[in-house]
């Protein structure tokens, strides 16, 4: 029974709903205001379209070139999802291995930092040489970028499991595997959710960089060619689609993690900044 004066979970949930409802409205107002300022500034300064197109011109380009843009957008979107899957599975596997062995932690931990510190533009040409110009090199690039936030966040969550729970499991004869699967992993799911949100936000980076280095389709290739022709409005149109993809993927991952970890909504909110 809750203590006197303590709010029940349902009461806390109801109190959070107005704040949750205000967040999308605040984001919409902020984004709309930024677009209005952008439009007014471009028109007032008479900025050439090849330097900085107005949002209205970008919207016209999105409509006019919709068949071309969305055909390539589907390619890039598939690469984003595939890279997210590859990077997430690899990150989870490495984090679980590191959590089970001190030797592996000391051996693999520095390699993770080195892999993240390497510039993606330096790695991309090598991945194209190794995996070819097809989708495999784009999946490898996206997976490599996504791998680090997933593995490090999950590993930190596994390390921070309440020692009392681990000792209690050992006293009851739980094996190392049972302790990992039944206690440490559930406790680390909020941290994994935060890492997945970061991964969803950076997923377009790997796909687009891979397309810049070598590809026959995709938004990265469209923007590369448009930039060479000084068609800046097309570049911004491609960026708009990428932003929409990132926001949709970020929101989907957030929804999924809240369903995976219903017992720790406050923890997820503090880690991700979104309730």
How is this fold's topology laid out?
Blueprint: H1 9-45, H2 55-64, H3 66-100, H4 102-117, H5 120-131, H6 135-159, H7 163-171, H8 176-213, H9 219-228, H10 232-260, H11 265-272
Helix pairs in contact: 2-10, 3-4, 3-6, 3-8, 3-10, 4-6, 5-6, 5-8, 6-8, 7-8, 8-9, 8-10, 8-11, 9-10
Describe the model.
It is a single chain. With 275 residues, this protein is mainly α. It has one domain: MetI-like fold, CATH 1.10.3720. It has eleven helices and no strands. The chain has helices at residues 9-45, 55-64, 66-100, 102-117, 120-131, 135-159, 163-171, 176-213, 219-228, 232-260, 265-272. Helix 3 crosses helix 6. The longest helix has 38 residues, at 176-213. The protein is elongated.
Overview in brief:
Helix content is 83%, strand content 0%. Helix 4 crosses helix 6, helix 6 runs antiparallel to helix 8 and helix 8 runs parallel beside helix 9. The N terminus and C terminus are likely disordered.
């Amino acid at each position: 029974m809750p203590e006197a004066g303590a709010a029940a979970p349902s009461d806390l949930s109801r109190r959070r709903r107005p704040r949750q409802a205000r967040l999308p409205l605040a984001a919409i107002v902020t984004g709309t205001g930024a677009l209005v300022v952008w439009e007014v500034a471009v028109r007032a300064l008479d900025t050439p379209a090849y330097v900085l197109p107005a949002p209205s011109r970008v919207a016209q380009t999105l409509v006019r070139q919709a068949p071309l843009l969305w055909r390539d957008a589907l390619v890039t979107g598939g690469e984003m999802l595939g890279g997210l899957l590859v990077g997430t599975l690899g990150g989870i596997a490495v984090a679980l291995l590191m959590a089970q062995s001190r030797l592996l932690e000391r051996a693999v931990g520095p390699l993770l930092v080195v892999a993240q510190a390497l510039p993606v533009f330096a790695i991309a040409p090598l991945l194209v040489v190794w995996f070819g110009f097809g989708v495999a090199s784009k999946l490898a690039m996206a997976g490599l970028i996504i791998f680090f936030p997933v593995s490090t966040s999950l590993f930190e969550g596994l390390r921070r499991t309440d020692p009392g729970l681990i000792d209690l499991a050992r006293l009851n004869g739980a094996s190392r595997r049972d302790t990992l699967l039944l206690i440490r992993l559930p406790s680390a799911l909020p941290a994994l959710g935060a890492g997945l949100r970061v991964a969803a936000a950076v997923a377009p980076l790997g796909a687009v960089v891979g397309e810049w280095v070598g590809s026959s389709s995709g938004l990265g290739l469209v923007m590369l060619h448009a930039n060479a022709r000084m068609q800046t409005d097309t570049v911004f149109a491609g960026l708009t689609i990428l932003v929409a993809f990132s926001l949709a993927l970020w929101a989907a991952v957030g929804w999924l993690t809240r369903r995976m970890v219903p017992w720790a909504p406050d923890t997820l909110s503090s880690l991700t900044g979104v309730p």
